[in-house]
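Below is how a single chain appears once it has passed through the pipeline. First comes the sequence as given, then the structure the pipeline wrote out for it. We keep one example in the README because the format questions we get most often are answered faster by looking than by reading.
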Amino acid sequence: MYQKKLETDIRCPLEYGLEIFGEKWNSRIICVLAAKKVLRYSEIRREMGNITDAVLASTIKNLISNGIIQRKSYDEIPPRVEYSLSDKGKSVVPILRSICKWAGIFYKEDSGNKMVHCQKCDYGA
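Resulting structure:
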């Protein structure tokens, strides 16, 4: 099993926040679950598009260990596992929406390009 050579050195709350939702796929998974409420792994995979299974599985595992996502397994055949946002995960959604809104304003201003919105984070909300 992989172990980090150095422990994470978090010195302020902002660093903690960025570690939780600043990774490339974390915020996208959070937004997908915020929009869809409850999804199975294959449904998350379909919503994410161009993410590998290894990266998706690792990202979901990290979000679960950080208390952002809840995993619920059902004692059925075939086995069924569903993922949803925890209360802690839901509390991140307004922050991500604010970042999305800010980026939508300033990305166009800075580059002259139009950003395609993912429609997952309710940009206009």
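The two ends are 42 Å apart (CA to CA).

See the next section for the split statistics.
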